[in-house]
Amino acid sequence: MAKTAQEKADLKAEKKYEKLHKHKYKIKPGDVIFNVLNYLVFGLFTLACIFPFYYLFINTISDNDLVLKGQINFIPRGLHLGNYVSLLNVGDLSSAFMISVSRTILGTALMVAASGLVGYLVTKEEMWGRRFWYRFLVITMYFNAGLIPVFLNIQMLGLTNNFWVYIIPGIVAPYNIILVKTYIESIPAELEESASMDGASYMTVFRKIIWPLSKPILATIAIFGAVGNWNSLTDSLIYMQSAPSLYTLQHRLYIYLNQASNLSALMQSGGGVSEAAIQSALSGKVIKYTISMVTVIPILLVYPFMQRYFEKGIMLGAVKG
Hints:
The chain is an all-alpha fold. The protein is built from 14 helices and no strands. It has helices spanning 2-24, 29-60, 64-68, 82-86, 93-121, 130-139, 147-156, 174-185, 189-197, 202-213, 215-231, 234-239, 249-269, 275-316. Helix 2 (29-60) packs antiparallel against helix 14 (275-316), helix 5 packs antiparallel against helix 11 (215-231) and helix 9 packs antiparallel against helix 10 (202-213). The protein is flat and about 85 Å long.
């Protein structure tokens, strides 16, 4: 009887819980309206973000004559991939693409390695002058010498018209080091202590314990570094004035945009422009669209695979101060 009574009591409690649960989470008309508006607003915002890329893409795969007449707005017409094939014939574009790819891969890899190592070192109380060096590193985020002193410094170091100007200045990134340091401090200290008791050195602990456990934050800063290197324009514009062979893809796009803009201004002002120049400007419009897509596609392809690390890393890396 006691067991039966207990079962009845449990069944009664379960029904009461279900009743309260249903009552608590009952959807009200106001909730429905809020959800509809919420999905509507964010849906429109998503479309506003996606449409510029979609517009560029459909204009690169549509009939060029229709594109030049401005008749491609929402639906592609006269589908073809000839514009992407034609990019291979655009002067120095393939070399600019390889320069951008090389600086992105090498610059991001060195930045991630340096940020991981320095971020680990500044968490060690035994490090000589740890507080001073860490504060000195943080101060560089707030003070900058300015464009001209930085250019003169780069010039004295012999890095102008040199590929390494893309890599060396970005290896030490204070903000990324802070993120890595904060994340490492959230890792249980017992893991490192147990390894140290077994005779592991700092580098062994870093390589076999800290580095594998820090993949989320390292992937996060890798995204920051890759996007920054791929989209960078100013360093190529300023430091490569006498080395066209080292122009990045963004720099080449900038040149094409300027050429088309200058020609358009001459045409509007009534200046003497040859028929060949006009045809070049018209085809340049399609080339601009295609190059723009080429510069965007790599990041769009990489980001979805890194997103889960990015979200986890940025949240965990911001827990501590």
